[in-house]
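Minutes, project check-in
Item: structure for the 389-residue chain
Input as provided by the requester:
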Amino acid sequence: MVEVDYGLTEEQLEIRNIVREFAEERVKPVRAELDEKEEFPRALLDELGRMDLMGLYIPEEYGGFGGSTLDFCIAVEELSRACIGVSVSFAANALGSYPILFAGTEEQKKKYMTPLAKGEKLAAFGLTEPSAGSDVSGIQTTAVRKDDKYIINGTKQWITNGGEADIYSVIALTDKSKGPRGASFFVIEKGTPGFSFGKKEKKLGIHASATRELIFEDCEVPAENLLGREGMGFLLAMKTFDQSRPGIGAQGVGLAQGCLDEAVEYGRHRVQFGHPITSNQAIQHMLADMATKIEAARGLVYASCRAVDKGGKGVSKISAMAKVFATDVAMEAAINAVQIFGGYGYTRDYPVEKMLRDAKILQIYEGTNQIQRNIIGQALVKEYASKKK
């Protein structure tokens, strides 16, 4: 297949080829079984760790590869082409790591990032609560300082890698009177007294991914586990999302590409009225629209990755654009793939049924696509207002 030249380096092309081969040979053969059994892909993540891919985004001084956001998103895209349940388990490890990388002390980074880089431990990100999802300012979990400890109480909900991860970056209110400005991040390890997990959620899709509640009942966390300073939590969460949202876009691109691959292959061999259905113009137009939008989404995701790596203003806007556009494309591609398969696409005998179920979450987690449009719109208004001054 002829691929568009996005100016990837030799190293990035090598990452893509290695992960693509892994996805084809290791993930695809077991994705249906993982989905059916709702089994966490621990063996696959362990294997990625042995391949030094779990630390792809982690600086070399902490045992990682030292790769860029684009390097990481290329890997996420290729895993997503095979299975979102596997790719989100891989990507959530980075989501839980970013607050430590951004605000952790040198001691904290060495303690936590080194085992994460080697794949010896997994991370998760604890923000969402029963009353605080898209509205981050609605968090209720509290952290009260008592001598050299913080006492944490509250519940986090819909946490990816919940129960499976060893290291959790958790946001809690250290000063309720200040609202979002009174939020702070903590590193909390699995097994800490007062820290437990709720039931594993039964979800529409991404069955291989573990999603659980985090429950804190008078959980005592050493004061040294505070990330940065008190009150930095909200800003740190926003910085984390700016970094991670292109990864959700990459999941969308990968899933959409997987749908296109399956639809073309099926259409070439599915004969109706004496001809393969790909000879029908209606099918060709569907495939053409899928392919065009996927390339547009891929270009936007890669551009957003480069913008994040470069830093500066406008990162929130382009990260949101990448997330919203690519995941909308993924949902459309999954629906069209099922349509092209017809009745067979509605059965579990073919992977597009699973892809459709998996696609929906991409428009929801890490900020719904409606919230992404708010972010984009607000950024545009500010930009135009500043131009008028």
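Outcome recorded: The mean pLDDT is 96.
No further action items on this chain.
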